[in-house]
Design a protein that fits this description.
The chain is an alpha/beta fold and 214 residues long. 41% of the residues lie in helices and 15% in strands. It is built from 9 helices and 7 strands; from the N terminus they run H-E-E-H-E-H-H-H-E-H-E-H-E-E-H-H. The strands form 3 sheets. It has a 3-stranded parallel β-sheet with strand order 3-4-5, sandwiched between helices. The chain has a two-stranded antiparallel sheet with strand order 1-2. It has a two-stranded antiparallel sheet with strand order 6-7. The longest helix is centred in the C-terminal third of the chain and has 18 residues. The protein starts with 8 loop residues before the first helix and ends with a helix.
């Protein structure tokens, strides 16, 4: 999902995860939800969100291990694993050493914090992960490793992603479909490849014209 700042992309992501109230309905895996009251624990387990600034979503008073273990306590442990084993496995899946479980967020770099947020999101492998500008605050080299990690997890678990971003070059690399949003409305939905050739709306064309080709 792409669009300029203020087009309500993040608000839509938060509505899908139940973090903010919404009107209308959400269709998800054959079910129609008409409000947050219908977002029961099974739904919340299946839909996760990763934010641009992990400092705002990682509790500074909890260790990395406690942060990752919280959804395991809420939604259950994988069969045959203890909580400690699951935490270590999840750290390894996001390419962090097991000893990070005892560290606090302030001791980590921005990229490491984002990996912890990803591990938490995949503690109970979800059907959908909403990624809200998750690479925007990272160095270019770190951005590439985070995207590579997310694609690897998608192959492993079959998870779908909704990327919220203003980076059209990133979208060209990873997206199968692209929704263009402006002031709360979705103007059009395009295939991830060859967006320019199929764009119909003048706003979409303006967005594409404003970005430098890789």
């Amino acid at each position: 999902m792409v669009g300029e700042s203020g087009s309500d992309k993040s608000s839509l992501g938060k509505a899908i995860t139940g973090l903010v109230p919404f009107s209308g309905s959400i269709d998800f895996c054959g079910a129609t939800l008409y409000g947050r009251a219908q977002m029961d624990p099974p739904y919340r387990r299946r839909v996760q969100m990763i934010f641009q600034h992990p400092d705002a979503s990682l509790n500074p008073r909890m260790t990395v291990g406690e942060i990752i273990a919280r959804p395991l306590r809420l939604y259950g442990l994988p069969p045959g694993e203890s909580e400690a084993q699951a935490v270590v496995r999840l750290l390894q899946e996001v390419r962090l050493p097991a000893e990070f479980a005892s560290r606090y967020p302030h001791a980590l770099s921005g990229g490491q914090k984002q990996r912890v947020a990803i591990a938490r999101a995949f503690a109970n492998p979800p059907d959908l992960v909403i990624c809200d500008e998750i690479t925007a605050a990272l160095d270019v080299s770190v951005q590439a490793t985070i995207i590579e990690l997310l694609l690897e997890l998608r192959r492993r678990y079959g998870t779908a992603y909704l990327f919220i971003t203003h980076d059209l070059n990133l979208i060209r690399q990873i997206a199968h479909r692209v929704a263009v949003m402006y002031r709360g409305d979705v103007l059009e939905v395009l295939p991830g490849e060859n967006m320019r050739a199929q764009a119909q709306h003048p706003y979409t064309r303006a967005l594409l014209d404003a970005v430098q080709h890789p």
